[in-house]
């Protein structure tokens, strides 16, 4: 772009130093008479833990293009990318295209370490196609809180809502449950809100911590479980 070396005077600059310029208006405000700050546009913007479908191209301030989806739409979680993207994507609504000038502090820093992760300020054109809403991860996602209880196996849990039922399932029971499951980095890995099976034979679930935990529950109860690797899918292999 002709303004790749720095943001033009008409760009919007946030306190963080991120600058942006609107290139295409979003679907919620196609007409210039419609405000980008409308309730419809505000509601359409992604949250940090949502996934978005985008196209993008990135340049260094010298004008060298170093990365591009090349119209091959990518899906990313908003808070799993560089800080400048995380902040910038939350400004956008579906159909919108923006140019971002991202300072090094919100990109890959000032030290060159990888050709596809260049140092210094970067410029990106990003077009947002759609937002895939995700359940909000719990604040205590990465570790059980002090008031959590533990089983002998190392499974941690906390009762969020007491159940009124008297029965607890066995490993061989057929159960019906609503659930969301996240990895420690915030990725949603299983959810009945997104097509995961709600009725199943408990012992058929390939996560031993899930099988153990559900057997502790009464009908109508809601619990949060923190499942150690040895009761889930094991440790991530090195390399």
From TrEMBL:
Occurrences of domain PPIase FKBP-type (ranges): 49-132, 172-239
Membrane spanning stretches: none
EC number of the protein: 5.2.1.8
GO molecular function, one term: peptidyl-prolyl cis-trans isomerase activity
Catalytic activity: [protein]-peptidylproline (omega=180) = [protein]-peptidylproline (omega=0)
Gene3D superfamilies: 3.10.50.40
UniProt-listed InterPro entries: PPIase_dom_sf, PPIase_FKBP_dom
Keywords of the record: Isomerase, Rotamase
PANTHER family in alphabetical order: 39 KDA FK506-BINDING NUCLEAR PROTEIN, FKBP-TYPE PEPTIDYL-PROLYL CIS-TRANS ISOMERASE FKPA
Protein name according to UniProt: peptidylprolyl isomerase
Organism: Zooxanthella nutricula
